[in-house]
Amino acid sequence: MYRRTYLEVDCEKLKNNIINIKENYPGYEYYFGVVKANAYGHGGFIINSLIEGGINYLAVSSLEEAIKLREFNTEIPILILEPIHLEFLDKCINYNLTITVSNMEYFKELLTIELPHALKIHVKLDTGMSRLGIKSSNDLNEIINKLPNNPNLFLEGIYTHFATSGINDKHWDNQLSSFKEITKDIDLSTIPIVHMGRSLTLVNHEKIPFCNGTRLGIVMYGMSQNMPAGKGFKAFLRNLRNKHNRKKLHISPTTTTNNLDLKTAITLYSEVIDLRKIHANDFVGYGAEFVAQNNMIIATLPIGYADGIPKNIKHIVINNKKYNVVGEVCMDMICAAVDETVKLYDKATIIGGDTLPVKKVANECGISTYTLFTGITNRVPRVYVNSQETTEINY
Ligand SMILES: Cc1ncc(COP(=O)(O)O)c(C=O)c1O
């Protein structure tokens, strides 16, 4: 690493998250780790820690992502959640990847392809998101009936994806009903893996009896997703609204609190590469938008929006002290108003640690934790730490 801007990832924390999730929700045979978008920004290197924690299937969006992960693990099954162009199916077979079948036209074309070896497929159902998926029981029955004629296509799974939390909306229940309707002619116990839920489903609902798989995304990375009972007037109003909606809409019971003890594993660091004193009425940064009201010390750090930090990031921390970001966030640099305790080359925390936790930074910037995690670009080296060693990877 030449520029000291990097994302530190604590692999033990990720592993412990999985152990903790499995202890709290032990009822599944398959725990899918959703590691698309470079494992939510953490980088593919982490998959072995997830596997050590108990993840036994991975899910990604694209063939590129799946092939990249094979650099880190050649054994674990990987499900690709989006359709793959049929000319690349040989790659799926060679890399031991499972494909998603999510529309009839694709399925019919798939039947015409001669495959050299068995290809595992999961059929995705559209239960209410209108993105991907088989929508009717007739279509699903056709798939199920035609598959045995093709010895190289193995139906390993059926799944869907929930649009909402179902905490105070009825959509979740409607999607579950729709899944039951589409699969009504099928004995789901004959399908090796049935998986519907994502993190929110896991922590906010009773286990769906016929599902033996669950897909873990954001919870694995330390976001608990529960709706704590909370304190104060806001929490009181939220609980009241949820209670009212549940009664009015007959929403299925939710687990609004849980005993999960999850930790985020990332800390984004940079360093002070310049310090300068400025006077009242001096400008800082592009557009001359920030005007100093009095004499100030400005620290410059080599991290910008091209590294994935939000354009409206508010604070950084140096030597346990929080400072305001001033001026516009540039492509490669930010400036902060600091004091005389800050020295050249001091290490700065941009995201993470006790003062700038992921959720707080995301909230302050008005973005989701998903956007914050996945936004960190590949220009930022990842440094993996666990009890034994430190590994730096440039993706
Ligand atoms: C199909 C599918 N399953 C599971 C997940 C994981 O979602 P979450 O991070 O909310 O658990 C995603 C993420 O977008 C997804 O697209």
Task: Describe, in short, the structure shown.
This protein is α/β, with parallel strands linked by helices and 395 residues long. Helix content is 28%, strand content 23%. The protein has helices at residues 11-24, 36-40, 47-53, 63-69, 89-94, 104-112, 137-146, 171-182, 199-204, 232-249, 358-365, 369-375; strands at 6-10, 30-34, 57-60, 78-80, 97-101, 119-124, 153-159, 193-195, 213-216, 266-271, 274-278, 283-284, 290-291, 296-301, 315-318, 321-326, 334-338, 347-351, 382-385, 390-393.
Question: How would you sum up this structure, described in words?
Answer:
With 395 residues, this protein is α/β, with parallel strands linked by helices. The chain contains 12 helices and 20 strands. The protein folds into 2 domains: 239 residues, Alanine racemase (TIM Barrel, Alpha-Beta Barrel), CATH 3.20.20.10; 128 residues, Lyase, Ornithine Decarboxylase, Chain A, domain 1, CATH 2.40.37.10. Helices cover 28% and strands 23% of the residues. The strands form 3 sheets. Strands 11-14-17-16-15-18-10-1-19-20 form a 10-stranded mixed beta sheet. Strands 8-7-6-5-4-3-2-9 form an 8-stranded parallel beta sheet. Helix 7 links the parallel strand 6 and strand 7. The longest helix is centred in the middle third of the chain and has 18 residues. The protein is globular, with a radius of gyration of 24 Å. 39% of the residues are buried. The structure holds pyridoxal-5'-phosphate (PLP). Pyridoxal-5'-phosphate binds next to helix 9.
